[in-house]
Design a protein that fits this description.
5 domains; 513 residues; 4-stranded antiparallel beta sheet; 5-stranded mixed beta sheet; 14% strand; 16 strands; Nucleotidyltransferase, domain 5; alpha+beta
């Protein structure tokens, strides 16, 4: 009992009893304090004049100056760690534990003391620091909702038999604690936006602001003061008229309401349930939210979440827009050398002069649109198969377009239009048994532009006559103007080229043509 500590109100009760004339024994029988202590109080009260009934009793502060225990310091109050106070303070502030500090001091500074000294020193530093006091956030009806993902169960695809992970998407209204929950297969931007849309339709309205963590599907740069939202999420917020309120990085307590909601789903809904498919799991989850979860007595509000939601909060939510914003995903893509950009393992063409530039890609459920800054430069139907291409011929350079469009049938049609000699020559080139001479034919047909149709037909006639069926021969004929000269006698008239002695005496004028 000697170490028993008394409050000031107890001293006041003893003084009142002494003033009333009660003896020390009588007061001690009440259990307030012992006779020895009461005698000390009586003696001090006489000295201070507190027993005079005409004088009011002193206040608690005055009593404390006489009765509060005095803190006495030990004779040796200087710690052996005092020379390293600055270093230890820095280490402790950075989160280094005491045993590590003790080892570092012994290793680097020759400290010979025990860990107990380090422990006492660190505890003294902790007591001298100001406590970290959290601020409890309060919300008005319809003011805010908190959103988070939580890890769900692993499920099996009934068609392929493959295992896949799932996540819970949870949106909880901060005032009523009514929530929307959905099980999804990924945390992509499209999934994030789609879950928001279905949650707003579930509530029948939109909260004024959405409090989120910093997931990559919503925030591109997490920052306390200047966070940057995903372009798609920013457009969604504008379309539904809500504001995005991201928490500071590494501070999930700012959205503790939805954190508790995720834990509640994991502990109350998930155990002892079986799911045939993802759709079946979501059906059970929604029934559970409207049933057990929505009608339980919430531990904080002490109300059933559905009751304040239906009675008040639902009417204070922002009305849904007549035309919901388009669920689109934005991404920055680079134009490859083949004039295509890649998105989700599919390839889409853009005009060839944009090769090497960065574009904005907007992906919806059915379309892909590409923008250079704010100007749309291409659009495609969204491809559903991986490694497939969507190519617009006008996006390719002229040479590439020619290779793609000027096929064999086109070449034959053009050659026939030019003339019979050109058509005959082209047929002969295409009938080559070794090489595909499509480029040679295309080159021959392109000679029509600088030399004209008549001269090209004459050059083909000359090439057919001398069996020089190649691009270079026709180009040389046109370049030297040989197509405008008369043809020499044919080579099959060889009899006149030999003398009676059997010597070859062909006219030199025919040999150089």
């Amino acid at each position: 009992m000697s170490n028993r500590r008394f409050e000031m109100y107890q001293y006041r009760q003893v003084l009142v009893r002494i003033r009333q004339g009660d003896s020390d024994r009588t007061i001690a029988h009440s259990g307030i304090m012992g006779r020895k202590k009461i005698a000390q109080v009586r003696q001090l009260a006489k000295e201070q004049g507190w027993l005079n009934p005409d004088i009011p009793l002193p206040d608690d502060l005055t009593l404390a100056t006489h009765f509060a225990p005095q803190q006495t310091l030990p004779s040796s109050c200087t710690s052996s760690l005092e020379p390293w106070r600055t270093q230890i303070t820095q280490w402790h502030a950075s989160g280094i534990q005491g045993t590590t500090i003790c080892s570092a001091l012994a290793r680097n500074h020759g400290f010979k003391g025990s860990y107990s000294a380090v422990h006492r020193f660190v505890r003294q530093l902790t007591r001298s620091q100001l406590p970290d006091v959290p601020l409890r956030l309060c919300f008005q009806a319809g003011d805010a909702a908190q959103v988070d993902f939580g890890a769900g169960p692993t499920m099996t695809d009934t068609q392929t038999g493959e295992m896949f992970k799932t996540w819970f998407f949870v949106m909880t209204l901060c005032w009523s604690r009514h929530q929307y929950a959905e099980m999804v297969q990924d945390q992509s931007i499209a999934t994030w936006l789609g879950c928001h849309k279905r949650a707003f339709e579930w509530f029948g309205g939109v909260p004024s602001r959405i409090i989120i963590d910093n997931p990559k599907c919503a925030i591109t740069r997490a920052c306390i003061y200047d966070p940057v939202a995903q372009r798609a999420y920013a457009e969604y917020a504008e379309g539904y008229a809500f504001k995005i309120d991201p928490c500071p990085p590494r501070d999930p307590q700012k959205k503790g309401i939805v954190e508790s909601g995720v834990k509640y789903i994991k502990r109350s809904f998930l155990p002892l349930r079986e799911f045939r498919s993802l759709a079946d799991a979501n059906q059970q989850l929604q029934q559970w939210v409207l049933g057990e979860a929505g009608n339980r007595t919430h531990g904080t509000t002490q109300e059933r979440p559905l009751s304040p939601f239906v009675n008040l909060e639902k009417s204070l939510l922002i009305s849904l827009p007549n035309t919901p914003p388009e669920c689109a995903t934005w991404a920055k893509v680079k134009v490859h050398r083949d004039t295509h950009v890649q998105y989700h393992y599919a390839y889409y063409s853009v005009p060839f002069h944009l090769v090497g530039k960065q574009l904005w890609l907007k992906a919806t459920d059915t379309m892909i649109k590409l923008y250079l800054h704010h100007e749309q430069v291409a659009s495609h139907t969204k491809l559903t198969r991986k490694r497939t291409r969507s190519t617009v011929m006008d996006h390719l350079p002229q040479e590439a377009q020619a290779w793609q469009t000027q096929d064999v049938q086109w070449c034959l049609t053009e050659a026939k239009r030019i003339g019979i000699s050109c058509h005959t020559l082209v047929l002969a080139l295409f009938n080559d048994n070794v090489l595909i001479k499509l480029r040679a034919v295309q080159g021959i047909l392109r000679l029509e532009k600088p030399y004209g149709t008549v001269r090209l037909e004459a050059a083909c006639h000359r090439a057919n006559h001398f069996s020089t069926l190649n691009y270079n021969a026709i180009k040389t004929i046109l370049k030297k103007g040989l197509d405008q000269q008369a043809l020499a006698p044919a080579f099959d008239q060889l009899g006149s080229s030999y003398t009676e002695d059997g010597l070859f005496c062909r006219d030199t004028s025919t040999m150089i043509q």
